[in-house]
Structure formats: C-alpha cells, structure tokens
Amino acid sequence: MIVVNRFRVPEHEGESFRVDLQRAHDALAERPGFLTGTIGRNVDDPELWVLSTTWEHVGAYRRSLSSYDVKLHAVPTLGRALDEPSAYEVAEAGTDLNIRQTRSIG
C-alpha cells in the first residue's frame, strides 16, 4: 500500500516544514508494517512538498496513526496535507486490484 501526502507550504516556511516532515517520516518509520518512505519537494514549484510512504497493508498504516508517537510527531504535520485521496493500492501486473462495491451496515 502506498500513501502519498502532498503539502502546499509557503516558500519562506520551507526549511522549518522540512524538519517537521522529517520528524513525521521518522515517527511513521518506527511503526510495524512500514516499508519505506521518501520526502520530496517539487522541482518546478518549491511550495509543493510530498511525503510518500509504503506499507505492508492498509491496516498497518491505519494502526500507525493511532500510535502515541505518531499522534505527537506526525499527525500535526499530516494535518497540513492537501485535501485529496492519499491511499493507493499497488497496481503492478499480476496484482489483484480492489473492487469498488457498496458495503452494507450491520
């Protein structure tokens, strides 16, 4: 599972945001199921940042968000992410893709 969080940050806040984003990355990296993560800044628009993480499965990612350290060191920064879908399934050849379906309640 891949999680892509994008952020729009004023250029003058870039260095302090970079520190915050690294802290968020480090907190997530300590959680079970974390595989890898990358911090990036757009080459054409220096106000656009990204934190991309890869997880064993969606449950590992969701459980990581309830960790005390993640709530303390990552959630405040993740809360600044652009309001857009961020969870992606791996769609390489041979993988089974999620099927969109209505889920019943109860």
What does this structure look like?
- The chain has 106 residues and is an alpha+beta fold.
- The chain contains four helices and four strands.
- The chain has helices at residues 14-29, 58-64, 68-73, 75-78, and strands at 2-8, 34-41, 48-55, 87-88.
- The longest helix is centred in the first third of the chain and has 16 residues, at 14-29.
Which term fits the overall shape? globular
Give the strand line-up of the largest sheet.
2-3-1-4
Number of helical regions: 4
Q: Give the total of beta strands.
A: 4
**Which percent bin holds the helix content?**
25-40%
What is the overall pLDDT average?
93
**Distance linking N and C termini:** 27 Å
What is the SS-derived class?
alpha+beta
Strand content: 15-25%
- Helix/strand order, N-terminal first: EHEEHHHE
Q: What multimeric state do the chains show?
A: single chain
- The rounded Rg comes to 15 Å
Biggest β-sheet description: 4 strands, antiparallel
Q: Give unreliable regions as ranges.
A: none
Helix and strand layout, with pairings?
Layout: E1 2-8, H1 14-29, E2 34-41, E3 48-55, H2 58-64, H3 68-73, H4 75-78, E4 87-88
Antiparallel strand pairs: 1-3, 1-4, 2-3
Task: Provide tags for this entry.
single chain; 106 residues; 4 helices; four-stranded antiparallel beta sheet; alpha+beta
